[in-house]
Known about the structure:
Radius of gyration: 24 Å
Number of helices: 10
Helix content: 10-25%
Structural class: alpha+beta
Amino acid sequence: MAVQVWIGEKPEHANERRAIMALARGLDRLDGLYLILANFTVGGRSIDLVIVKQDAVFIIELKHCDGRVFGDVNGPWFVEGSNGERKRLNPGRKNPYNQVISYYYNLVNFLNDHRTELLPPQKAKTVDFRTCRRLVVIAPTLQEGSHVETDWKVDLKGLDELPAYLVTERSSEIDLTDEEMLRIPELLHLTRWTEINALLAGVLPNLDDSPAVDRPVSRESPVITGPVGSVTALAAPSAEASTPATQAQPVVASVSLSQRLSRLWQSWAGRIALASSLIVVVLIGMIFSQGRALPRSDQPAQSMVVSTSLPAGGADAGAISPVSSCIWSGFQPVGRRMINGSWENVGVGGNAPGLTPDVVVTLEEVEFCDGRITLRWSLRNNLSDQHVEMPLTAENIEVRDSVGTRYLVTDDLSQPRGLRALPGERVRGSAVIDRPVNLNASTLVVVLKKLPFGETTWLVPTPGAG
């Protein structure tokens, strides 16, 4: 089996159960092991969904939306129905972007803190979970006309797009064996979702079998049990799977392959599975039609989509400290490259040739101790023919929080007042705000306004973040 589903608790909502089932079917026909970790808690925070493969970890906030979605990084998100009425998504809670950011910190801190339990001693020194990818996923699909402004930290996808995205994307500095992958759900104290794993083998029609004979239907149809003992039927992808058996003996019918596919197409979950399989087949066909073998996970695939975003982390990642102290050490790099006269976001690690960054700015650490806020930066210049500057002053750095408080950098306290990196050089410095953070704020928004490569935003959880 290419997919295993692990859970902390069975999801309460039917839409979430159906989405996990559809995703599992989409991944089950792919090569290699995929782990779906759902509805679990780490560091006191509940996490919707995590997907682990050999060379990547994806942290996901999953939302079911029957309409177009609108939102941005900091404000509320809305869903617009067919009648034009807008309703707020997650009323009274963080928007999906900030939810997945908070998931990231809790899970990554946990995985890095337990690296020696997950990995052999030598490998534990090289694998860095700060390069986990972060996504908001809209089920069943991100409708045309939706408009959500995110940044390089979080990707936005429809559930129908997700399997193809998972195939093509990777996390730099993550390379796990099947055994190492399976230690992750065990360490998180998750359990196998037996009903889903049992259903996977018979959900999609086997295109290698004779289409004239359907598989036997069991009298005891699998069900999903809710968290308080209630029983909820799982939406099946085909008529065979959703019709309860009236006899114990096998049911034999003369059904053509086209009829079986038509039945599968009758549900949105089935359509997602078929579309996902078709995308993978097309990608593989494109590669072989050009006379190339499938690329290894650590090689860029020129016929596939190359991501230009990277979550916090990278080749230069430093130590992580939990936000529970007065120091946040999230290590968030932003890489830019000059392309056709303008700076473009190209990520930091795992890029195709020609997309490596010219300049990398990293917000390495934010200290909230002793009644002041200290922002610690690094600036790396990969250019060979010119220096790069980054002033650590109020003119270049703007800081505000989630409740609207603005903070002014005290120029005279910055060490130094500006960073200047010669070709091939990496330098560090600190910008200081001589006042404490607002205790009612959950997030600090740090904006680099001008140098070295234009406006860029970082989000930092405060010590009081929930």
